[in-house]
Amino acid sequence: MIRDERIPSEQLQRIDEELRAGWPTGQAVDFEEAIRYHESLPAHKRFADVLETADQPLLQPRAGVPRLEDQIELLRYLHGEGEADLLPTTIDSYTRDNEYAKAQEGLENARESGTDTLNGFPAVNHGIDGCRALIDSVDAPIEVRHGTPDARLLAAITFAGGFQSFEGGPISYNIPYTKRHDLATTIEHWQFVDRLAGAYTERGVRINREPFGPLTGTLVPPSIAITVMVLEGLLAATQGVRSLTLGYGQVGNVVQDVAALRALRSLGEEYLPDEVCVTTVFHEWMGGFPPDEARANGVISLGGMTAAIARPDKVITKSPQEFQGVPTKEANAAGLRTTRQIIDMALEQQIDIDGIEDEQALIERETHALMESVFDHGDGDVARGTIQAFDAGALDVPFAPSDSARGAVLPARDDDGRVRILEFGDLAMDDDIREVHAARLARRAETEGRKQSFRMVADDVDAISDGRLIGRPNGGGNRAD
Amino acid sequence: MIRDERIPSEQLQRIDEELRAGWPTGQAVDFEEAIRYHESLPAHKRFADVLETADQPLLQPRAGVPRLEDQIELLRYLHGEGEADLLPTTIDSYTRDNEYAKAQEGLENARESGTDTLNGFPAVNHGIDGCRALIDSVDAPIEVRHGTPDARLLAAITFAGGFQSFEGGPISYNIPYTKRHDLATTIEHWQFVDRLAGAYTERGVRINREPFGPLTGTLVPPSIAITVMVLEGLLAATQGVRSLTLGYGQVGNVVQDVAALRALRSLGEEYLPDEVCVTTVFHEWMGGFPPDEARANGVISLGGMTAAIARPDKVITKSPQEFQGVPTKEANAAGLRTTRQIIDMALEQQIDIDGIEDEQALIERETHALMESVFDHGDGDVARGTIQAFDAGALDVPFAPSDSARGAVLPARDDDGRVRILEFGDLAMDDDIREVHAARLARRAETEGRKQSFRMVADDVDAISDGRLIGRPNGGGNRAD
Amino acid sequence: MSRTVVLGVIGSDAHVVGITILEQAFSAAGFTVINLGVQSSQTEFAEAAVTHDAEAVLVSSLYGHAEQDCQGFHDVLEDHGVDAVTYIGGNLSVGQGDFEQTRETFEALGFDRVFDAETGPEEAIAALKRDLHITTTEHERATVTT
Amino acid sequence: MSRTVVLGVIGSDAHVVGITILEQAFSAAGFTVINLGVQSSQTEFAEAAVTHDAEAVLVSSLYGHAEQDCQGFHDVLEDHGVDAVTYIGGNLSVGQGDFEQTRETFEALGFDRVFDAETGPEEAIAALKRDLHITTTEHERATVTT
Ligand code: B12
Ligand code: B12
Fold first, then answer.
1. CA B35/CA B42 separation, integer angstroms
2. ipTM of this model?
3. Domains of chain A (ranges, CATH numbers)
4. Which listed ligand is nearest to A181 at the C-alpha?
5. D12 contacts in B (CB within 8 Å)?
6. Contact B399 D20 (CB under 8 A)
7. Residue B176 annotated as part of some ligand binding site
8. Which protein residue has the closest C-alpha to ligand 2 atom 80?
9. pTM
10. Confidence class of residue B480 from pLDDT cuts 50, 70 and 90?
């Protein structure tokens, strides 16, 4: 059975070769030559260094289109007009499924017809040369963002292609992103990715790794997200990763979000070995957006405001077109600048809100309980513990489409809009904690004069897209108009 | 010399008749018939009632176009698509100058050519019938917003025309809006407007009056704005006004803005007689906007966020096109919905920020000092006191274009972005207060390694339009990119 | 007797929240819902429709690959002998496309109705009742019996 | 000798902040600035230009009535015998107009240069130095003597 142990070099090499034989562009990877390429990159393209030395939150959008020239243009635009500090390259869905042939078809289609039917940049198909052409053409660090359960070939090619940051992890790119991948396999696959990042790191090319914090993006209780971040961080550290950016997706309650970001940082530092440099990333609201750009700007700005108070190292921005589909580059840049403006206006202000410490203490207590349960389930081994804890429902993610998670946990907002747990299932939280949640939700139910039920959850899921934080019956409204 | 005394009815009547003879549409005013018209209006068009009974901040845009049909369409749009709770009718600049003939020309021009060269709705020219056609066609309360030093005829016609709320006042529509009007005259003119509002009020038609809080919109220290609000409130109350909405324009520092809105409410209640119902209005940032709609949305959202925390009774929204010129109706509605979204998401959250009480206490102390000085200057009479205090520079407004104000006060932001006073001139604030300001500004100067000077003020004037709150040298930036 | 609908997310799309809400809403409205979950293949839809004798097949797609994922879908249904009402909904095109065009595309692929992401479940339920000629009384009975 | 410019806001426009910044910037750049303030008439501009023998007349307008307010302005200047460079800047049209069109309108009215509200003072100062053939040395002398 899989364990949290470093992959031996021979094994790394063997898998690497196997993998690279799987698709033509894989052959071109040459580790030593890749190290030299990375060493040739200027300081301002070194992802980990830029992120870790910044003195205020850096902004990064999401963006990926199939064709190389378009992707270059898009990223230049987002860097220039959007004033993004860090850039992304979002990978298409076929690549995420390891369907490189289909991706190839989509790419050729796009090249011929000029219309894009792929929803991202098929980096494997573009190969090392394509990746480097992108890295060379754009004057900022670029991260690979995807959602791929088995991202081994993608990692091999993009690392050699000059990318120095790579999103995802065995839990965070499995549970929210797929139905049938089992955790043991994704852990094994990501151990390879992390080991590869570790190999580069040992040669002085610190590849930044970023577990995907928002998970399903939908009312995820902070402690669950943080636990997953810490677990993926530990697994990555074992493989030699030394630059880790732990993520968290905005829930929309300012106190809870600030508390969660602080807890994320402190728990990350608590659990991860000293030699790992831990940074944090805050994702602007990842759930359903309002079908209206003006309202979406309000949602985005609340995220910016929260970031100004919590000061994460990085903020992933949304665009006002989030509801509709992949945004135009103009809308994407607009989301960046709206965020920038509100952050820069609020950043220098001292805004200390009451109650953050208490909320942070609760989140830390919950996370400790979950982490302890994982260690117990694995007899001290994080890899085994993760698998068994998910299997037992001791660790769980709300709205998880994956067969590997129970999906029994149901979240709902309390009367103040903080995300609490309505159904715990077998989640490893003790009665004390459960009572805190129950009491908060009871108060809300009382305010609304209704029972706690799935109806409440469904209302909360829709609330922000309907224009408010809490899914009150009849829209909460005694509005005057 | 003018005094703060109620205009006797005979005098009211005489002035009224004189005035109405001044322009053809004036003749049609019939007080008794006007009362009947107001009585015929449904509850949801009664401005004061709607505002005073609301249980969350109501939103109101600014908007005015020359032609009646266009104004109807515009207001319906802002009510429907913009979800505005309260509506405005902004008057054109010729009317503000009492140049009704020029306004007539502009209006006819607009009717013929179809392009608008007037920057607002010339209500005097539209006359009572035009006003009532507007009131009848739109399903929400509507306020007259203008900037007219001598608004007597405008008031006579719009009150009779069915409007139940009227912005402005003798100081707030003089000092920021004109160069050569003396305060004694504008006070006399506004006593008439207020007395007219009082006459309606006595007959059960409570006309809401709203002094213009933002003044010059540019770094106005809260205590100065609040003092002007209280003074205009007192003058209005003397004339029988019973529904008063005191205003305040966002400065952009959340703590200071929340403190100022609370101080505004508490000082309003402290100074105004019990029979006056005091409400508050918060104006989203009234200074220079960024020349970029995306960034403007960030500015607007910071206003919405502040409003959610401070909970004024009303919020006047800005549009993302503020920088450029009069906004399209779509942009205007967008500003409303962006504001609505962030307010509604934040409103139910408990957000208690440290330091608000201290800042509020400082604002109240300063306002007390200014008010006391006004009373002293007028030997207890507010009208005389106002005139003399402005004359002496004991009361002053920064960036005032008017000859009636010294304009010697210079504001600048402190290191936290709060607006402080750099040059007091003869402002009636004692040394203790001056020292607080000086210390705060000294700290900023130290942070920036430069002297306090007009350069700092100019940098602060441009800061928000340049993308930040505080005008630091070289844009404040060690930005990573 | 309760009417049966098959519901799922097609292709390799994993957006599950929408169908979770739809499942709950259709159940509450009296339908028997066979929820295939996310990442369901065309064949899985067809087989479930046969097995459960479904009267409607509700396809969801959010991630922007719906058009590719639905190529030939109605042939597969026909091959399995499925003669059900077919709906599709969600974010059906990549990018900021015009919805009328999207509707035409998916109608041409054989769907009886096409919904955008602004559609609330109520709207789809009302449409399905009309298409299946379900009267309110029958619906109410259905609600009681399920 | 320092070069003199007349500065003011025309018509019944009261937006004073812009000219306050401009006054400071032009003074710092070595010009003698005669600031008429807001709500200045065409005649006031012309008379000040004569009195102070100004080499440039800088007109500001923000409130959207610039076009009406500037009708015949250059005739008035001519009548007074003013032969100065004329600039106008600010928010020159009502609404969200296209700036190129605005520029043409005001050039047709006789202005030598037309600036939008995004113009920083530096830009206008640089342009004026070019138009008045002020070399940097002369400018530096000017800065010293004022
Ligand atoms: C949450 C979310 C995620 C979560 C999903 C978690 C999960 N497993 O469910 C995560 C973060 C994992 C995710 C991943 C991705 N996402 Co996503 N995601 C969203 C988001 C923000 C909300 C979706 C949601 O849950 N809404 C709430 C539910 C209740 O609403 P709904 O899904 O729209 O469903 C309702 C209606 O559409 C309708 N409906 C839906 N289906 C049907 C079917 C029928 C028959 C009927 C009648 C009605 C109907 O009724 C539902 C209930 O009211 C949307 C944007 C948005 N809408 O705001 C993007 C969005 C759908 N995602 C998008 C993309 C591109 C992706 C990724 C490819 C991203 C990436 N590049 O990494 C991956 C794909 C992964 C995969 N394999 O599927 C795009 C799709 C673009 C397009 N179509 O052009 C969107 C629109 C964002 C964007 N603007 O780019 N995403
Ligand atoms: C503050 C402000 C006010 C304050 C003014 C206080 C005062 N006395 O100064 C108050 C609240 C009183 C006010 C009133 C009005 N305002 Co006003 N106001 C503004 C605002 C928000 C900022 C202006 C400002 O101070 N900017 C900061 C300074 C530093 O920049 P600036 O003025 O643009 O000047 C710079 C440049 O333009 C340039 N420049 C300017 N002039 C010149 C000249 C030359 C030769 C050169 C080279 C350069 C140059 O250099 C300057 C320095 O950098 C603007 C919108 C905006 N810009 O964000 C609206 C705006 C100018 N106002 C507007 C309007 C309509 C009015 C009113 C008619 C409003 C009303 N309907 O009630 C009244 C008019 C009153 C009157 N009689 O003039 C409109 C004008 C619309 C148009 N042109 O189509 C604007 C654009 C707002 C809008 N979008 O509707 N306003």
1. 14
2. 0.95
3. 9-346 (3.20.20.240), 359-475 (3.90.970.10)
4. 1
5. 93-94, 96-97
6. yes
7. yes
8. D63
9. 0.96
10. very low
